[in-house]
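[Structure tokenization] protein backbone as discrete codes

[Encoding] learned vocabulary of local backbone shapes

[Begin record] amino acids and matching fold tokens:

___
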Amino acid sequence: MIKLVFCDLRDHAATWVGAFCVAVACGYVGGWAASLEETAATFSGMRYIGSVVLAFSSVAAVAVLVSASNLTVSAQRRSYALWRLANVSPRRVSCVVLAQLVVVAVLGAIVGTLLEAATFVPLFPMVFGAKEALAQATPHVSFSMMPTVWLAVAGVFFCGGFKGARSAGNTPPLMALRESEPKRRGMTCLRIALFAVLTACTGWTVFLMVGAAPDVVMNWSLYLPILAVAVLACISPLALSAAMDAWTSLVPGTRWNAWFVARRTARYGLGSSTSVQTPVMVGFGLVAGIFSVMGVWADYNALHGLRFTGLDWTEALILFGGPVLLCAVGAAVSVVMTSKSRTRDTALLIAAGARPETLVAAAACEALIHAVTATLVAALAALASNAVVASAVGMPLLTGLAFGEGLLVSLVGFVLLLAATLIPTCSALRREPARVLAVGE
């Protein structure tokens, strides 16, 4: 079994490189959090900064890791079907898949922490340049905490890909060879349990804020956008698909072939669509939610004649550096990992008589569908957290609502998605459809 694990990783390195890149990014951010805690041990002024980085990055890390692991398993279904045809037992297939996820996660996390060890000291003055007191601290790389980061990344990969691994082992081989993706049947028990726990935590946080003094509300207000986005991430398979169905139905597909193709492609591959949209949703939700809360406090302080400086460069990097990096990597990787199936789908449409300009327009429309869907769902989290904080301090609802900074995240995500959809489409247009369709594993 061990030989099968590593031989398959070698033969399908192009498929696994996406999950590897995500693990590298998570290891890098986790290494920063660990090193900041190590530095705080000798410099009391930096206490809790590592915890803040970890808290804000963990939501994005879990969402991106789970999406990447599930998408990788889904992209490999044809290989697993061939194993089943070769009389490999379902249990062994599932064990091999889980072992591959752990190997890729650990290797990626190791590379990420090594990159962090090489860059933490040189980048430390740049990150904390806006805080003179913090910039004087002596940075220390936390080598002792690196194995913990590796295990954490591997654990999330393992849990996130568990359902996909069971599906790979239990799906009938001929069905897997015939269908590009299994039909999704609601949410897993783990997602439901996490949703219940996070909803309870969110309700408890709101309970503490309502009727409390303004300083207590401020202490808890930054946690509310994180919890709101985490709750949405748990139900993302349902929320994203419902939002996509709702707003795309407003544009008649019968009047424009490109829109019809893009909408059908996004709706058919719901697993791939959710994996692509989740990083953008998390990025927009965190950035827009935090800046909206900051807007509430800016308006509150202005109303009471108090001074409020907002976020400086250092604070913005601490809060958003990790989540934005992880979401950008996750969005790009998710679509690149589906490029092979996208190339074959384009060749099928060409063989069916679709015009090249229609397919290019359809690729652009699909990227737009993903970006808009993720933005609309994430906007709900930002609206909810903003309304709660504003109400808790007696300000009008939607006070200080700030979507501009979050839209920058959505714009970057759209550009990445556009490039990742257009490149395989244009590649397929330059090749003979029969050759593309004839290429096997």
